[in-house]
Predict the structure.
Amino acid sequence: MSSVGAGELSMSASTIVADTARGCHILKIDGYSSTKVNPNNGEAIKSGPFTVGGHRWRITYYPNCRTPDSADYIPLYLELDEKDTRRVKAKAQITRQPSLKSAAAHTITTGNGRGYPKFIKREDLEKSEHLKDDAFTVRCDIVVFNEFSAEATAVGNHEASWRGA
């Protein structure tokens, strides 16, 4: 074991590494006008399951609103679709396609789907270029945060500048 003498600078470095997984899911609502007729208010239609970061997810679409305060809107939510009770932390953003216009991203933890209770005003969608041939498409981008770790790294070429040389 060596020791640092008087006046010598001991150098070390480390890196904090975020273990994340990224993915996206494209959901097409085909037959939009029919989806408005079938479910009752507050009833959801769910996407097929998809996996990001080792977890199964679904997008939940409420064609006839979810709550009275979103009656004029189409709500969309991202939900964890598994019975696992481990804590999962993720950030998700849902955008209309082909446009990239969207609201802010939401952080999701196990057991509580998060999303957009007022994703788009129904009247605005029905008048927009996004509703084409009675269909529209959304994209959900997800980042799952698995864990953070610290790793020792080489001091490298920065050693001279850290010493003030």
User: Anything to note?
Assistant: Residues 32-37 form the longest helix (6 residues). The chain has three helices and nine strands. The beta strands are 13-30, 45-46, 50-52, 55-61, 73-80, 89-97, 106-109, 114-121, 135-153. The first strand starts at residue 13 and ends at 30.
